[in-house]
Amino acid sequence: MHAGGVGDPRGARPRRRRRAAPAARPDASRLRVDFAAGVPDLASFPRGDWSWAQREVARTVRSEALGYGDPRGAEALRDVLAGHLRRVRAAVAEAEDIVVCGGFAQGLGIVLHVLARRGVRRVAFEDPGYGDGATMAAAERAGIEAVPVPVDGLGLDVGALDASGARAVVVTPAHQWPTGVVLAPERRRALVDWACERDGVVVEDDYDAEFRYDREPVGSVQGLAPGRVIALGTVSKSLAPAVRLGWILCPPALTRAVAEEKRLADRGSPVLDQLALAALVESGRFGRHLRRMRPVYAARRAALVAALAEHAPAVRLTGLAAGFHAVAHLPDGADERRVVAEARRRSVGLYGMSTYRASGAADPAPARPRLRRPLRDRDPGRGPGGGRPPRTLS
């Protein structure tokens, strides 16, 4: 159940390969244990803090703030997010370059439409990667061809990305979905080099960045090249998916186009919820919730490790240093699909890696090595179309 795959030679038109549809997620009410990934402990949602924030907003909001307002989102939330991203994610973030959206799916769709209008015709996705179908469909709706690029133990294979002919790539560098690997420092530098050399755009899905158990979370790639990276973030993992709030941190050259696409989509995300989230972060209650949940998730991680060590010592776990999921590497000869089916027969929800591979294979194909050309002299701070350089933070 290791991750892997093969990139397509540069210049050759890649065959359009559709991801295998993931196995239908069983009704959670029928499962005694469900290891579904990407969902926080919904019972731990800070109801009291959220209620407090909503009451504060209802009590203090100015009447003029209840109109349609700026399609980028409430200024109060954008200010708070910019400070949070600078402090926690080492991002180069200014409020004027943040667009609030309705979560990752909407944010990615907006970004892909903007890139398509700027001439991007091919976008790379990690393989294994998003297996829900909707993410791939977002590229198709934008008129962009989606191509898979392999992931190995160091993260995205940047050489294969270079060979793919893509001008944009969607990556999860802090905690790769679904392998759980962290993009290695040399790969982070190579990714920035690729973006500069190929006039490319990196779309950074800051997945699971808030939850790291062995050390402080790794900083965002956006902080290395703010003119080349579009950073997407949400509170779906830190709070709950039902909040439906996220953000797009744009290179300055793309902010206006992204804001206009958001305006055309829905004229802006719900203002009162934005203000409630701003109050939650500004009051320190959001940070307190994260600090409370990290040891909870770390304890569950330890329980899983101990249980498998006792009952299934031949199963190796990886991807445990961050986030809400781990990868169980089955021993040689084990059949992934049979293991998943037998687990469900016992009311346990497991999910095979094959559903997240472009090929749909249960076992990865060996990756071919790729060579990269030397970096041309470009400024990583300047974005698509020669956008202005990154600002200096005081």
Structure description:
With 394 residues, this protein is an alpha/beta fold. 34% of the residues lie in helices and 12% in strands. It has helices at residues 47-60, 75-89, 104-117, 134-141, 158-164, 185-197, 255-266, 271-282, 285-311, 336-345, and strands at residues 33-34, 98-101, 122-127, 145-152, 155-156, 168-171, 201-205, 229-234, 246-249, 316-318, 327-329, 348-349. The strands form 3 sheets. Strands 2-9-8-7-6-3-4-5 form an 8-stranded mixed sheet, with helices on both faces. Strands 1-12 form a two-stranded parallel sheet. A hairpin with a 2-residue loop joins strand 4 (145-152) and strand 5 (155-156). The radius of gyration is 21 Å and the shape is globular. It starts with 32 loop residues before the first strand and ends in a 45-residue tail after the last strand.
Helical run tally: 10
Percentage of residues in DSSP E strands: 5-15%
Which percent range fits the helix content?
25-40%
Number of strands: 12
Largest sheet: 8 strands, mixed
Question: How confident overall, as mean pLDDT?
Answer: 85
Unreliable residue runs: 1-24, 366-380, 385-394
> Would you list the SSEs in sequence order as H and E?
EHHEHEHEEHEHEEEHHHEEHE
Q: What's the overall geometry? A: globular
**Rg on CA atoms, Å:** 21 Å
